[in-house]
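Sequence only, no structure available. Ideas?
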Amino acid sequence: MTSLLVVEDDRPTHALFVALIRRCGCEARSAFDGRSALRQVRGQRPDGIILDLLLPEMDGFQFLSEMDRFAPDLVLRTIVVTAASELLFEGCVQMRLVRNVMRKPFNIEELEKDMLSMLDGRPAAQRARAGGPMRLKIS
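Reply:
I predicted one. Tokens follow.
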């Protein structure tokens, strides 16, 4: 089964990401800080990652830097969703290593489309979906 790792320390946002991943028919794995996320990636590699930049233990930039050493292809299958400052956000956008960078509040339909496209290379509209559209906006 396709799996995505959610690396987010805000519990409600984390739960939303997990629900979205499961709704799309994938397995959701969880990490609430950068170090435990890195251990998971080294142990049982996910097919993609949803990552916050502002994390305890090891921030998202450090996590991406470490991952780039042993799993550069997985860095390219990482979607960053963050409330980081404009400067940090722009720094992540300019790195151009990750698949996409979204600011919080984010559009859940855009995230779902990008996540599905990342996993199978087809637009989200071509995949069967388990349920109707989610119309939530997280701030």
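The chain is about 45% helix and 20% strand.
Hope that gets you unstuck.
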